[in-house]
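BUG: 3D viewer hangs when loading the predicted structure for this chain

Environment: internal workstation, default settings.
Expected: structure renders.
Actual: progress bar stalls at 90%.

Input used:
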Amino acid sequence: MSIEHPEKIGLGTWDRDSLGSALNDLESVGVAWYYTWSDWALYDADPAPGTVEFVGMTWDERLVTPEALERIRASGATALLGFNEPDLDRQADMSVAQALDLWAALAATGLRLGSPAASLDQTLGEGSWLGRFVAGAEARGQTVDFIAVHYYSDSGDVAEFEAWLKAVHDQYDKPVWVTEWVLADWTGARSFSAADQAAFARAATEMMDDLDFVERHAWFAACEGGDGWYLNSGLFDAAGNLTEVGRTFAQLTAPGAPPPIAGGAGDDRLTGTAGAELVLGGAGDDLLSGGGGADTLRGEAGNDTLQGGTGGDGLEGGTGNDLYVVLSAASTLIERPGEGWDRVSASLNWVLGDHVEQLTLTGGAALDGTGNALGNVLTGTGAANRLDGREGDDTLQGGAGEDWLLGGAGHDRLWGGAGADLLEGGAGDDIYAVDTPGDRTFERPGEGWDRVCASVSWTLGDHVEQLTLGGSAALDGTGNALANVLTGNGAANLLDGRGGHDTLQGAGGNDTLQGGAGEDWLLGGAGSDRLWGGAGADLLEGGAGDDIYAVDTPGDRTFERPGEGWDRVCASVSWTLGDHVEQLTLGGSAALDGTGNALANVLIGNAGASYLCGLGGRDTLSGGAGDDGLVGGAGDDRLWGGAGNDWLDGGEGADLLDGGAGSDLLIGGAGADLFIFTGGWDRIADFEDDLDTLRLDHALWGGTPPDLAGVPGLASVTGAGLMVDFGAGNGIVVEGISSVWALIDDLQIV
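Structure tokens produced before the viewer hung:
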């Protein structure tokens, strides 16, 4: 061991209950004695196990009773401490005279008596509380066997501590017990880490070991989460494991404990042995390895690697980006804020301590990894892992197994990897990466805007808002009842928004976008896309390529830019083409209107009575099966009536008008128009001689070779105009022509 008098080392704690399970482990840290300074507890008769000695204390006048003093004496104690800081109003708060009046009762126990322990400012000097008490006791002939003192350092200056102890001994000329000592700044201006406390504990213990007049000293206090929580001074953590301070006392008192193993300014490789050792890396990027004992490894400066052994090691990386390799659950890690990006590699279940950012689980076992309040990176093994990010914006990555990833609070990224994984983002705007159809996501209402990035076809689960397809395969993406954002990849995707006001965006492929219910925004992107808004007033934007829009609501809108391909609208409602859309096809059997734009449009009617209007451009209008009305508008248009009794108006320009089957009305309008007659009973309302042309189908002659010279024999003048009757229910009336000879030179037979 590195000290000669381990019997001096003691421990001060509030009461026996606050020690908890640590009561049975005091020997493991070399504590030779302990006392409790509770202001109310009556002491149990049984001392701590083993060789740890119990010392009694009368905190204030309330414990100076026959019952309390007898229980202390019966416990086997050989010494009794006087009152606790009697000069302070929130402690024992006693006058010197009051303490002297009660002193005889303490002396009657027959135990060695330690003086009341005054505060630091009332210990030295004849006029101090302690100076007046000792003088009063001597005047009354009362015994004070040793002087009990408290010392709290706010600097860690051991030389200053030593000088103060010597001053106490010089004044009172009695043995000294330091019954409370630790690093503390009660003003709150400074705080101290466990490493600070451990360094002070080591140096001050070695100092007091060399002072013969210091009979005993008691470190303050016992357990993290108990007496030592606010000072980082506990010997044990809340789970009963040794802290860095606890390991320091264990190293000081261990038989044959070696001095610290210290590196230099270079990149050192330092390895402990089977004992409990302190290994210091110093400057440089060091590799520190523990042995079989409870070692303390401190990387100090540099990007260090600390490999704990099988004992309960304490690992402190210091500044730099450090790597901790842990093999034992009893190992503890210490990092401070701003000391770099630190990583743990663990082959067992592990929870990241404060100020450590990354955890990588290793080996083939199914392990649990848990983060902290930082933005952590947690990586699993090839088995089934449970990764829990807790607070912070975390990145969780599973492996080949069926993993359970919990993001917790924060904006997290969860990637299950291979295997059917369960991904639970928690609160915050989370991103899920899914690559297996068996993966599952879980979100609760109101937990942020969440996104799935999928390399397989995917349907969004409840309470997830966004889906982005990845890779180059032709994948499907399906939304839910929320207002989703669905984005395709470069292949041919099928995106289905379902409920909600969705935004669907294709990429480079020939995509199919279905908005579903809600007022949706569909963007086809590059490629020849199909866009169907579904119910609701939707905005459909095809982008580059030859796109097809399916519209079923008058409130739908299409958007195209110039030069983005030949685009078509398929409408189940009356529709007017928007800018830069070329074709309109009416669907269903209802009587619908279809209107073009300034382009050369193709307008196609449905099975009902369609009204088609070309407006500007060289349009092609096809009526379909119903009794249709077709208006070409400006431009050289082509109008095909189809089946039904149709009405065709070419408008301006040199138009082609073909009524098709049925009794049709043909109006050429301005310009040199071409009228085509193939059968039925049609009427031309504005034929202009020597300008317009009438083209007759040769089938009108019923198999007889057609001959223009025979037309006058079929013609007759009526009140409606010139009528040409081909028989078999076929004929045409040309208004404005009173002589067949005026028409004959405007006829063509094909």
